[in-house]
Design brief:
Blueprint lengths: L1 E7 L3 E8 L4 E9 L7 E6 L5 E4 L5 H13 L12 E8 L10 E2 L2 H9 L8 H14 L5 E5 L9 H4 L5 H7 L8 H15 L7 E7 L3 E7 L2 E5 L21 H9 L4 H11 L1 H6 L5 H9 L3 H25 L4 E5 H6 L1 H8 L21 E2 L8 E4 L4 H12 L2
Parallel strand pairs: 1-6, 6-8, 9-12, 12-14
Antiparallel strand pairs: 1-2, 2-3, 3-4, 4-5, 7-8, 9-10, 10-11, 13-14
Helix pairs in contact: 1-3, 10-11, 11-13
Bound molecules: adenosine-5'-diphosphate (ADP).
The site of adenosine-5'-diphosphate has 14 residues, from helix 10 and helix 12.
């Protein structure tokens, strides 16, 4: 059976088609600038050349139509007919407190996704647009929702509650949720396999360091804490997000810079983080390069970034009472070996010792711990789409 995995954003649709017999990727691609002049489809069939199609499209339904046409195209398609797609898996960012695992999408599920608009205004509306576009075009196959928040639902109130009047939790669901759950789930499972230990017996700290970044502490297969909170803004320093700050700064800067709530939200999500601090870029590669050529602010921003990650490693070591391994994943975690080295420096008190030579690899699954490191340091490329495809297959049986 073939499974189509869809990740719909406000103006983009990412997709992959898996052949589930061997979990191989048959095609993947991206429709960019949906609803904006200059829409393009980049379609990459496995084993064939990439094709780029330019065609202005008004909405997600038209965008999905173009994807399906590409998938059955005689020249660059990967199947004869759309009927070969047995099920569709959708990435949904926020499932609130309703979902601790993936679900088959029905009217009730769509209502919950809508109910979360308030707390995920940038993500859930386009996610639902993607679902409805696919349901309109493929009404006879099961559609499954896989939530970024689901894996973190095992957190205890001591981890997920903020010290705010309790009624804002009850009335407005203000609590910590955590995101990137699908990635933390995938790499922690793979880490247990690499350790040769049952997942239920492992204590793991996962570091998903991409443009957005989060960490999770996982004990016995359950997330006990994670760095992102009510929204993906909390926690680590990210490409353009501030991560943890004194909340009083928000009111202070709203007044000083004359921002309303929406502008302030945009400021702390889009103008802060490594971009704001370094003044160079949101891309860690540019910042590393600038720091290497003597840009002091770039160097300073890296030190703030490392300091925050180290702080959370310490917190999670305390919460877990020790751990079996650290796992680095996502764009920076998989490729930035200098970043991994800086983070793991001077952690030998915890029994964390890196083999810096072994560590000099990019984008590969590898154990980079020194022979005498008590705690393993693993690099594991994440694969959120595969988790979505597997859950989709399982739920549509
Ligand atoms: P997201 O999915 O959050 O957009 P990714 O996980 O794809 O992000 O990560 C993208 C980031 O990975 C880029 O912004 C870049 O900073 C980082 N990256 C990629 N290669 C390297 C590298 N060799 N060294 C450091 N950072 C890298």
């Amino acid at each position: 059976m073939k499974v189509l995995v869809v990740n719909a954003g406000s103006s983009s649709i990412k997709y992959q088609v898996f052949g589930m017999t061997d979990e191989s990727v048959l095609a993947k691609g991206l429709v960019d600038r949906v609803g904006i002049p200059g829409t393009t489809l980049e379609h990459k069939p496995t084993g064939k050349d990439e094709v780029v199609i330019k065609k202005d499209l008004p909405d997600h339904t038209e965008g999905m139509k173009l994807v399906l046409e590409a998938l059955v195209n005689a020249e660059y398609g990967i199947m004869k007919s759309m009927d070969e797609i047995g099920a569709v898996g959708h990435r949904v960012v926020h499932g609130g407190e309703a979902f601790a695992s993936s679900v088959l999408i029905d009217t009730e599920v769509k209502k919950v996704i809508k109910d979360c608009y308030d707390i995920a205004p940038l993500h859930n509306p386009p996610n639902l647009m993607g679902i409805e576009a696919c349901q309109a075009l493929m009404p006879n196959v099961p559609h499954v929702a896989v939530f970024d928040t689901a894996f973190h639902q095992t957190m205890e109130p001591s981890s997920y509650l903020y010290a705010l009047p309790y009624d804002v939790y009850e009335k407005y669901h203000v609590r910590r949720y955590g995101f990137h759950g699908t990635s933390h789930y995938f790499v922690s499972h793979r880490a247990a396999e690499m350790l040769g230990k049952p997942y239920e017996e492992c204590k793991i700290i996962t570091l998903h360091l991409g443009n957005g970044a989060s960490m999770a502490a996982i004990e016995g297969g359950k997330v006990i804490d994670t760095t992102m909170g009510f929204t993906p803004l909390e926690g680590l320093v990210m490409g353009t997000r501030s991560g943890d700050i004194d909340p009083a700064i928000v009111f202070f800067l709203m007044e000083k810079l004359g921002m309303n709530a929406q502008e302030a939200n945009n400021y702390f999500n889009k103008k802060a983080g490594m971009l704001g601090l370094s003044g160079v870029s949101n891309d860690l590669r540019d910042i590393l390069e600038a720091a290497n050529t003597g840009n002091e602010r770039a160097q300073l921003s890296l030190e703030v970034y490392y300091n925050r990650v180290k702080g959370y490693i310490g917190k999670y070591m305390a919460e877990l009472n020790g751990c079996d391994c650290l796992v680095f994943t996502a764009g920076v975690g998989e490729n930035g070996y200098d970043v991994r080295e800086s983070i793991c420096k001077n952690l030998d008190f915890f029994g964390i010792k890196m083999d810096v030579e072994k560590n000099k690899v990019r984008g590969k699954e590898v154990d980079v711990s020194a022979a005498d490191s008590k705690i393993k340091i693993l690099v594991i490329p994440t694969n959120e789409e595969l988790v979505i495809a597997r859950d989709t297959l399982e739920l549509s049986k």
